[in-house]
Specification:
With 382 residues, the chain is mainly beta. The chain has a single domain, classed as Porin (Beta Barrel). 7% of the residues lie in helices and 60% in strands. It has helices at 2-17, 127-132, 166-169, and strands at 26-43, 53-67, 70-79, 82-93, 98-105, 137-145, 149-157, 174-187, 190-201, 216-221, 230-236, 239-253, 256-269, 276-290, 296-297, 302-303, 311-324, 329-346, 349-363, 369-381. The strands form 3 sheets. The chain has a 16-stranded antiparallel beta barrel with strand order 1-2-3-4-5-6-7-8-9-12-13-14-17-18-19-20. Strands 10-11 form a two-stranded antiparallel sheet. The protein has a two-stranded antiparallel sheet with strand order 15-16. A hairpin with a 5-residue loop joins strand 19 (349-363) and strand 20. The chain is globular. It starts with a helix and ends with a strand. The relative contact order is 0.15. The model is unreliable at 1-10 and 17-21 (pLDDT under 50).
């Protein structure tokens, strides 16, 4: 693996040196965000943990620097008394349609992966996306984006490679990922795109030495960041490889839009153990009640954030199934219904109100539960 990273690093240097440029001006722009949340909860089980309250679930400072065809980004987050590294990468534009990025960031896998967490269409991402998508990974990504097509190819190491040294982590899990999108219509008020993403990765780090790089954990939390409580969790031991894919569709006509995605994951296991299978899906219907028609974002591959002054309503349903009785893994199943109101007073701020009802069942060592949540968020990003 060290040889692979070395070759890729040398490739980056070669690309830069082979295209020497005249002296360019260095442009540095600060960045940051603040999210302010408040929530009310009512749970059937464990109500003592779902306490009403306020939170600052995400606060960040950072910068983005650009020099010719090179771009660098550093983003540091602070939440609940902890400092954490967010995006840290170097990027080189290869042409008007191609780029190569190296560092620690979220690699593209489906609709939700390329959109900043503060500019998603609801307060929280779909539970199925949380279960089957990866968080930030240390690696490389190539992206091509033109009028009709978007394509990415990634090679990465696991998330924990950014958090601990190799002597503590062990042999790092590695994987590959790709996203392909065809978008025949991308005009304002007339949008249609279909796509598919696929990924492979080896078993991940686990603090239990018996499970380290021999297991996968798929999990979700209840759809709130005021409280941090696990809703579903599947631990798959004796694991060999994980394969997953997700088809996606998004469309908009005028001020009405739809986004939907299906997820599937399979884990092959050692001899004598049945393979594990899990799946999920979500569908979001959105409409602008005040403002202009929806527009498209080419590099992210999806509907762009509405214009300043817009008001929007989002109705969504999510289903996540992490239980596979044949494999002996009962991670649980959930159904989530939600309604969100978004107001975009200017290009830096969003005010949101979200109501949701979530049911869970079939999770080992946890009772069936349902939780009603009413939340609001005021956020600023620059």
């Amino acid at each position: 693996m060290k040889k692979i990273f070395g070759v890729l690093a040398l490739s980056l240097l070669f690309v830069g040196s082979a295209n020497a440029q005249d002296e360019e001006k260095l442009i540095v722009k600060p960045s940051g965000r603040i999210l302010l949340d408040g929530g009310l909860f009512k749970a059937k089980e464990g109500d003592e943990k779902f306490n009403d309250g306020f939170a600052v679930p995400d606060m960040r400072v950072g910068f983005k620097a650009k020099y010719g065809k090179w771009t660098a980004k550093v983003d540091i987050g602070y939440a609940y008394g902890k400092v954490g590294m967010k995006d840290v990468f170097i990027e080189r534009s290869l042409s008007g349609h191609d780029l190569l990025r190296a560092g620690y960031f979220i690699h593209q896998y489906g609709l939700q992966s390329s959109t900043s967490s503060s500019f998603k269409i609801s307060m929280e991402e779909p539970r199925s996306n949380q279960a089957f998508n990866n968080s930030r990974l240390l690696g490389f990504m190539y992206e091509h984006s033109d009028d009709k097509f978007l394509a990415t190819a990634s090679f990465f190491s696991e998330t924990d490679a950014m958090k601990m040294t190799s002597d503590k982590l062990g042999n790092q899990a590695v994987g590959m990922m790709s996203r392909l999108v065809y978008r025949p219509f991308t005009q304002r008020g007339r949008i249609f795109h279909v796509g598919v993403s696929g990924a492979y990765e080896s078993p991940r780090y686990n603090s239990d030495t018996q499970l380290n790089h021999k297991s996968y954990v798929l999990k979700t939390t209840w759809p709130t960041r005021v409280a941090n409580i696990t809703s579903l969790e599947a631990s798959v031991d004796n694991a060999k490889t994980l394969y997953k894919f997700t088809p996606e569709l998004t469309a908009a006509v005028g001020r009405l839009g739809i986004e939907t995605q299906y997820f599937y994951a399979a884990v092959t296991r050692d001899a004598g153990y049945h393979a594990y299978h899990a799946s999920g899906a979500y569908c979001s219907l959105r409409g602008i009640v005040k403002g202009k028609d929806y527009k498209y974002n080419y590099w992210d591959g999806g509907i762009d954030t509405p214009d300043p002054g817009a008001m929007e309503v989002v109705l969504a349903y999510d289903y996540t199934d992490l239980s596979d009785s044949h494999a002996g893994v009962l991670g649980g199943r959930s159904n989530d219904w939600s309604a969100t109101f978004n107001y975009y007073p200017n290009k830096y701020m969003i005010w949101r109100v979200r109501a949701s009802y979530t049911k869970t069942q079939n999770r080992a060592a946890a009772p069936d539960n349902h939780v009603s949540i009413l939340e609001t968020r005021l956020q600023i990003k620059f």
